[in-house]
Amino acid sequence: MSIKQDSVDLKKGAKITKTVLITVSLLFVIIMLVIPMLILIVYAFKDGFTKYIEAITDTYTIKALRLTIIATITAVAINTFFGLFAAWAVTKFYFKGKQLLLTLIDIPFAVSPVIAGLIFILTFGRIGWAHGFLEAHDIQIVFAVPGVIIATIFVTFPFISREIIPVLNAQGKDEEEAAALMGASGFRIFRKITLPHMKWALLYGIVLCSARAMGEFGAVSVLSGHLRGKTNTLPLHVEIIYNEFKLSAAFAVSSILVVLAVIILILRNIVEYKAKKGGR
Amino acid sequence: MYVELKNITKTFQDYKASDNVSFGIEKGKLIGLLGPSGSGKTTILRMIAGLEQPDSGDIFINGERVNDIPASKRGIGFVFQSYALFRYMDVFDNIAFGLEIQKKNKKEIKDRVLELIKLIGLEGLEHRYPNQLSGGQRQRVAFARALAPNPQLLLLDEPFAAIDAKVRQELRSWLKEMISRVGITSIFVTHDQDEAIEVADEIIITNQGRVDQMGSPLEIYKKPGTPFVAQFIGQSSIVEDYSSLVGFDKVESMNQAIIRPEFIRIAKRGELKQYLSAAEEGVVESIAFRGNNLEVKVQVNGQNFTATRSLEKESIQVGEEVDVLIYRLYVFDEDRTYLLENKAMKDDNPVFI
Q1: What residues of chain A lie within 8 A of the CB of B85, using their CB?
Q2: How many CB atoms lie within 10 A of CB B149?
Q3: Under DSSP, is residue A260 helix (H, G, I), strand (E, B) or coil?
Q4: Which residue ranges does UniProt annotate as crossing the membrane (chain A) (predicted)?
Q5: Which residue from B344, B326, B322, B308 is spatially nearest to B239, judged by alpha carbons?
């Protein structure tokens, strides 16, 4: 009798916990995410649909969008390349300073983006040590597009290698050794054995990296110099029009970023689903 | 000698994996490298393959020194303990991999792969992926993949370790038959003496980075070269005071002896018609059923011995007094072993009752 009573109590307890947990999570998500997003959409359309279209087809907005996309694609491409190399190096070879390299890769996670921007100002800017060289060769980095791209690369560097390293570690070296014994070249081993194995992790890293690159504000803000139509990315552009009290325009432009974010989230879910299916 | 190792040493930090290892293998032989874990057998295999470099010493394959030849150019087939099948390729592509690297034409590759799939008896499974195969099937694919490029030497690292007991038995005889059919010189590593004895033409016994003995399974069984081999092979147990036993005199400097169950006969009182004077009296301590026989522990003058007794014979009980006839034992000192026969049995011969 008492045992039965206990189990009923236990079930009741579990049910209460479940309800509380779900309610808290839901409330949190609604207050912190859903309501602000709805407000954003509402504000974006406050002055009417034509105003909205006007805001998002504004020359400067289009230019900012273009720069954001260019910076994102370049940063993702470069980070994919170096991320692959770094991950391959630390998982398949033993060398001195491996732990140091792993720590260095993580630095952008730890350093505030604003500081990252300042680092590059101090390197390439008027007071920087590389300034003379850049001046002599007529290369402009600070307050120019290359600066925006460099800032984006720095901030998003760890995403790809961090996604691949655990997968490669779990795989071990046997398959590579087997292929090498049969005389396969390093590139062939990479293409036929290593790459298929980390394909999904790599794609997932690329998606995360893109999301982060599009939204980057701090480091880019320091390096870009806010030249409207030249070095403004979308997040910077939103800030500028917001500071000019064009609220609905600012929200309209923000909605572009939201749409991009949603697209990336959908991509992420597809990749996750496929990875689960493919990861026998 | 087809494969020859000369004075190989290899150290990992402070662990001596190979300590002056030398041996030679004839063409076409199937060799078992047998030793306890950590005795350096896998290191030897990996050095022959070129996956590890020896610190000093020479490795010859077919008369050519291969120390400076990279693994990929040595023409060796290697079967990994984990099989290391390419998990994102199906059976066909796995086996074809080595042939594609050799830039064989499509038809040649297809013919060879299908021939091998037939050889390993996996027809119809060529488009399965490794994770859709059983352990035994994976092992067969790994074997076929290693053989596909026609290597001159096949190395297998613990080929049966990852397979359950029943299939392992089957695969042992399968592998032995395959290798003899293909006629390829092969070396396999194992820590299981039954496996080595059953499969290998010759066994090399490794111990603490050194080669203790090399010979046919029977030779190693009958004439263990070192105390380690004598203890490692068979179900050996140590006899502390062998000279107190009837028929065994003390041999100079040899203080201990090794005995195996098959060296001992346990007889019910009155069962022994011969050699009675060569037998000891003992008391049965315990009896355990071992499937096809009984394992009997007896005590003789304070020393314990383990022997077997057929199930067909009249049963004995714990506590029963029995006659214990010891045929022979191995006596040893630091580095020699010596077979000692029961002298009393010889003396007894003419006095047949």
Answers
A1: 175
A2: 21
A3: helix
A4: 20-45, 65-88, 100-127, 139-160, 201-227, 247-267
A5: B326
CB contacts of B101 in chain A (<8 Å) are 182-184, 188
CB contact B72 to A (< 8 Å):
yes
Report the C-alpha dihedral over residues A268, A274, A277, A278, rounded to 10 degrees: -120
Domain check: are B191 and B256 in the same one? no
Mean pLDDT of chain B: 88
Give domain status of residue B232, yes or no: no
In this predicted structure, the answer to whether residue B352 has a pLDDT above a threshold of 80 is no
Q: Are residues B91 and B161 in the same domain?
A: yes
User: Is the same domain home to B210 and B266?
Assistant: no
Looking at residue A198, the DSSP 8-state letter turns out to be H
The letter for the amino acid at A92 is: K
What is the predicted pLDDT for the residue at B314?
A: 85
The verdict on B99 and B175 lying in the same domain is yes
Say if the Cβ atoms of B86 and A172 lie within 8 Å. Answer: no
Q: Which domain holds residue B34?
A: 3-224
Best of B51, B66, B72, B156 to mutate (most A CBs within 10 Å, chain A): B72
Among the partner residues A172, A178, A280, nearest to B78 by beta-carbon distance: A178
Cα end-to-end distance, chain B, whole Å: 54
Interface ipTM > 0.90: no
**CATH number, domain with residue B32:** 3.40.50.300
Rounded distance between C-alpha atoms, residue A65 and residue A59, angstroms: 10
Q: Given a cut of 70, is residue B31 above it in pLDDT?
A: yes
* pLDDT the model gives residue A5: 59
**B180 and B245 housed in the same domain:** no
B242 and B196 in a common domain: no
Q: Based on the fold, state whether residues B180 and B262 are members of the same structural domain.
A: no
B103 touches A at CB < 8 Å: no
The pLDDT tens digits for B171-183 are 888 888 888 888 8
- The predicted model gives B324-330 an average pLDDT of 89
Low-confidence ranges of chain A (pLDDT < 50): 1, 280
How many angstroms separate the CA of residue B22 from the nearest CA in chain A? 24
pLDDT the model gives residue A4: 56
**Quick one: closest CA in B to A176, which residue?**
B84
Whether residue A183 and residue B102 make contact (CB cut-off 8 A), yes or no, is yes
Confidence at B49, pLDDT banded by 50, 70, 90: very high
User: Which of B224, B259, B284 represents a domain boundary (last residue)?
Assistant: B224
Q: Are A147 and A124 in contact (CB under 8 A)?
A: yes
Give me the pLDDT at residue A278, please: 62
Interchain contact, B85 vs A175, CB within 8 Å: yes
The string of pLDDT tens digits covering residues B264-306 is 999 888 888 888 888 888 999 999 988 888 999 999 888 888 8
What CATH number does residue B272 fall under? Answer: 2.40.50.140
Alpha-helical (H) ranges within chain B are 41-49, 91-101, 106-119, 135-147, 165-182, 193-199, 217-222, 227-232, 343-348
Closest B-chain CA to A199: B88
Please check whether residue B98 touches A, CB under 8 A. yes
**Domain edge (last residue) among B224, B258, B292:** B224
Is B353 inside a domain boundary? no
Say yes or no: B80 and B217 in one domain: yes
For chain B, what is the domain count?
Answer: 2
What residue has token string 């690292």?
A: B157
Write out chain B residues lying below 8 Å of A277, CB-based. Answer: none
Domain assignment of residue B229, yes or no: no
